Amino acid sequence: MFELASHLQHYAWGSTTAIPEFLGCEPDGRPWAEAWFGAHPLAPATVPGGTGLDAVIAKERDRMLGPDVARAFGGQLPFLLKVIAAESPLSLQVHPSREHAAESFAAESAAGIALDSPRRIYRDANHKPEMLIALTRFTALCGFRTPRRAAVILDGLGTALTDRLHRLLVDNPTAHGMRAAFRTLVSASLRPAPEAVDAVVEACRARAAAGISPSPRIDRFVSLLADHHPGDPGVVAALLLNPVTLQSGEAMYVPAGALHAYLHGTGLEIMATSDNVLRAGLTAKRVDADEVLQCVSVTAAPPLRVAPERQNPTSIAYYAPVDDFELAVTELSDPDDPMAGTHPIPGSGPRIVLGLEGSATLETTTGSHALRAGQAVFVPAADGPLRARGHGSFAQASVP
């Protein structure tokens, strides 16, 4: 087992306290948005001595990953585990499919665009499906409503922009109508002026205050987004999307092509090892509307909530419909006794184990490691089965 130090990301939307408290660090006044526990070459976790986990794996791929995983994923760890702490809303975004990412990454590389260039859109050749498990109450937007339901949300707001969107959806209550409505908001040639967006926000606030909203939650989300991104057309796009509220322990899967925005809360994210993010709005970063429109799925779909499955008396697993990752949570309630028995932890292959609460002792055939909340270890495939004892909980990211 290798102890891991996370790679921290200090994005502006992060919380100044949630991740430092989780990791047992002193806050420094900066926003701590994400802690990455993985082997992405742009931001790998490190082992003692400062070597990146990607380099550790590259030296002994079969021992670290196991021959099957090494072969299936080109010698790369296929998943990335993160702690995410959103104090304010993230960008309205979508992630590409594996095929689109590979083609686009190859095209940008052939054009000689450096990975760190501001012209670069695709940072790697992989897709980025992801699953979020809430550690606190977590709010988000994810996926498009049905056109008819979105038309009901827009109806009666009485602004020129919402009337135009409403007509599009009533005249064509299909995925084509929804794509046209979304294109109206984000396309460079069609996007509305800030004044038109502000009018919609005021109409939503007035409707909510009057108690006549068909969706009070989405009106609150529109107001929240406008506070952080006034005049941004992505604020109005929220009216086309599903609002989501997750309580602690609840999970949501976000497939490639699903338009989404995380709004507030702390959670665990597990995803394919990728940093490909295509932004449609609600950000000071680069907006890639044309790429978003190529990749986005406008087919109506409810948020994909993932119910955990009981694996044994101590562990539950969250399964996503992808080959890259799965995540399990183990809760131990043994007395603080070094002689207490150990519990088998389901899973095999390369694993990252992250302490959530309390403490535990992890054991494999090669040794043991004491794990506290906020600490993480990488367990190579060659270490074999994992057992644990202690009083607390931890998450285990692995390959299905």
Give the tags.
single chain; 400 residues; alpha+beta; Jelly Rolls; Phosphomannose Isomerase, domain 2; 3 domains; nine-stranded antiparallel sheet; globular
Give a short summary of the structure.
This protein is α+β, with helices and mostly antiparallel strands and 400 residues long.
**What can be said about the biggest beta sheet?**
9 strands, antiparallel
At the first level of CATH, the class of the largest domain is Mainly Beta
What is the name of the CATH topology of the largest domain? Jelly Rolls
Q: In angstroms, what separates the terminal alpha carbons?
A: 20 Å
Number of domains: 3
CATH architecture of the largest domain: Sandwich
The name of the CATH superfamily of the largest domain reads Jelly Rolls
Anisotropy-based shape:
globular
Low-confidence stretches: none
User: How does the helix and strand content classify structurally?
Assistant: alpha+beta
Count of strand segments: 20
Number of DSSP helical runs: 12
Kindly report the average pLDDT value: 95
Helix amount:
25-40%
* Share of β-strand residues: 25-35%
Q: What radius of gyration results from the CA coordinates?
A: 22 Å
